[in-house]
Write a structure and sequence with these properties.
Strand content: 5-15%
Oligomer: single chain
Shape: globular
Structural class: alpha+beta
Distance between the termini: 53 Å
Radius of gyration: 22 Å
CATH superfamily of one domain: Glutaredoxin
Order of helices and strands: EEHEHHEHEEHHHHHHHHHHHHHHH
Number of strands: 6
Length: 407
């Protein structure tokens, strides 16, 4: 079973099979903005070249041009799809001509800082910014990737705007915080869930700390949470989505990975969360622990899940996914993935993860074989194709100093 893995995947979605769910790409142009090669945006090799965020933002401020920043991660499948299907197309080159464009690698220190500054909670996120005096303002945000046509249409629509979009919620977090929270006995319909959704939306803006305080107050109130758990599933799941974003805000914006782990641990234990959704909360809990430098605790959480499921292959694949991407217990991850791949020959994600492990172990020959197998099982997958191409590139020849003088 193949499950979307990037950070746009709802926490309430089942996570068996392909388990990267976590979730819960850039070449600098000489001028710091988008460049197109060849010069005419009509040839088959036309693509958008991505600058780094700093140079592109400086160029936008100096020129007054709009600025598009794509926040991505190498392991994120929709991110790779966005690059291959959209940014590497003549249509994108035409649409973004005259626009500064940057790629922001979420996993780099600089990229994580940019993502935190602009309150990026999911991947990929495309930020559409405009100069406003000496700073940039956000006039549009596209989260996820559902195809090149829709993505380009959304970017072009945002580029037409010169002011931020009006908020969808009738009140912001600060105003909501100033009121008393609804008493538990009033949590009987969708109104409370709608308020939680508005607070979650505010996590993406300046009111984020206020919104986080209110959402945390709800999560810390067992009476109110128990009342929510008794609501119909659609209401319950809307609340879950809001709490999930709180956890992501803790780890990606506040950079408090330990508190994020606590949020996801509370979701794991909440009676309102369906059993099928608990692996997702567990994954994000373990991921936050690993980000906090507590890899042994993350592994213990995953090992407990594998044991609780009787050693189910889906649980082992879920656990191995996190271990590979967070560089924790690689030997255990390899053993689990080999077991999954042997039992499920059509499991392309297990093959891909084995390729990732091979690359981490500086074994590109094994990595190429695994990526090719994954791509044979699921052809034309942007993630597999891009990683396969990268693995085939020979490493740079050692310099004379690196070779040494020993014959």
């Amino acid at each position: 079973m193949h499950v979307p893995t990037c950070c746009q995947m709802p926490l309430v979605q089942a996570v068996s099979g392909r388990a990267g769910l976590a979730c819960l790409i850039a070449t600098a142009a000489a001028c710091g903005g988008a460049s197109v090669a060849p010069s005419s945006p009509s040839g088959p090799d036309v693509r958008v070249e991505l600058a780094d965020f700093g140079s592109a933002s400086a160029a936008a401020l100096a020129s007054g041009r709009p600025f598009v920043a794509v926040v991505h991660a190498d392991w994120c499948e929709p991110c790779n799809e966005l690059h291959m299907r959209a940014l590497e197309s003549a249509a994108a080159a035409r649409a973004l001509a005259g626009v500064e464009v940057a790629g922001v690698d979420f996993e780099s220190a600089a990229g994580a800082s940019v993502a935190a500054e602009w309150k990026v909670l999911g991947l990929p996120t495309t930020l559409v910014l405009r100069p406003h005096g000496t700073s940039l303002i956000e006039v549009g945000r596209i989260e996820g990737f559902d195809g090149a046509k829709d993505w380009l249409a959304a970017v072009e629509a945002a580029l037409q705007r010169r002011e931020p979009e009006p908020g969808r919620c009738p009140t912001d977090a600060a105003a909501f915080t100033a009121r008393n929270l609804p008493a538990a006995v009033t949590v009987t319909d969708e109104a409370f869930a709608a308020q939680l959704e508005c607070l979650a939306a505010d996590l993406r803006g300046a009111a984020g700390p206020d919104a986080a305080r209110v959402l945390q107050a709800v999560m810390d109130d067992p009476v109110r949470m128990n009342a929510l758990a008794r609501q119909p599933e659609p209401v319950c799941m809307r609340a879950v989505a809001a709490f999930r974003l709180l956890g992501r805000w803790r780890t990606r914006v506040q950079r408090d990975h330990a508190r994020a782990a606590e949020v996801f641990a509370a979701l794991q234990q909440w009676p309102g969360l369906p059993a099928r959704a608990k692996p997702g909360a567990l994954y994000w809990r373990a991921r936050s622990l690993a980000k906090a430098g507590r890899g042994s605790e993350a592994f213990a959480v995953l090992q407990q899940h594998v044991t609780a499921t009787g050693g189910a292959l889906e649980a082992k694949e879920l656990a191995a996914d996190l271990l590979v991407h967070e560089h924790v217990e690689p030997a255990r991850a390899h053993a689990w993935l080999v077991e999954v791949a042997d039992a499920q020959p059509a499991n392309h994600w297990a093959q891909y993860l084995l390729g990732e492990l091979a690359m981490l172990q500086s074994n590109p020959i094994e990595a190429v074989a695994r990526y090719e197998t994954a791509n044979r099982i699921q052809p034309d997958n942007a993630l597999y194709l891009r990683h396969l191409a990268r693995a085939k590139v020979p490493p740079p020849a050692p310099t004379r100093a690196e070779e040494g003088t020993t014959p």
